[in-house]
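Quick illustration for those who missed Monday's session on complexes.
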Amino acid sequence: MRPEPLAAGRAGDTGKRVAGTVCLMRIHQLNCGTMAGICPTRILVVEAPDGLVLVDTGIGLQDIADPSGRLGPLRHVLRPPSDPAQTAVRRIEALGLDPRDVRHIVLTHFDMDHIGGLADFPDASVHVTTPALTWAVRTPRFIEKRRYRRAQLSHGPRFTEYEYGTERWEGFRVLDLGHVAPGMMFVDLPGHAVGHAGVFVPGGGDDDDNRDVLHAGDAFYHRGQLDPDVRVPALVPPAERLVALEPEAIAMTHSGLAALARRRADSLDVVCAHDPSGPGGL
Ligand SMILES: [Zn+2]
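Prediction with zinc ion bound:
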């Protein structure tokens, strides 16, 4: 387990040094599903040494083809896009990359706007925390059965699961994903769903400037929840609590992320799935 972010590469590198070699890790922040016409669904596409790695998938081609069967009644609330160009598979093609190079997908959690594209990459390994897999798939309670959509998993994704141990990074519990991409980690961010985790990716950055990225999933919704100088729309906090499965943990997760964003302002972008004002604005 590597407890600290990798040291920055020399000026001009687009990645970070790992064991004496330069590891090129370009990170693309992409909107893979504008919800209700206003709210993006940010995913990461990481150009890792052994292929492409996705952090979340957004809405997929099958969701667009069959919104009723795949998304159920909540589609009327989410109002997902109808344009296949917004899916990860089409976004990756538009970047000039090959979707068949997607080897790994790392999920922050199992909500439908985050896993819809899994079926578009059926050969990828899907990495999840054990608590997320347990409560979303293995033994869901009534509330999770209503919330998560098994139709989006009907293609039988190959899951690899991870249990937290004693490793810490910047005060957070973390899980090493270095075998997926050098320096990648799950970061425990409780509140939104059981087992909900952010994903830290070293190097790259949306504008290729070597900045690290922490994709915080749905651990917050608006930049102002981490930055006191930015006003938070009044509807955001109550909406966040309404959909949270562990609402008592939200405040602690926000304060931890805000402190991290301040401490690492020179080198780290803390982004979430649905904030249109975040870095690399979509
Ligand atoms: Zn979401």
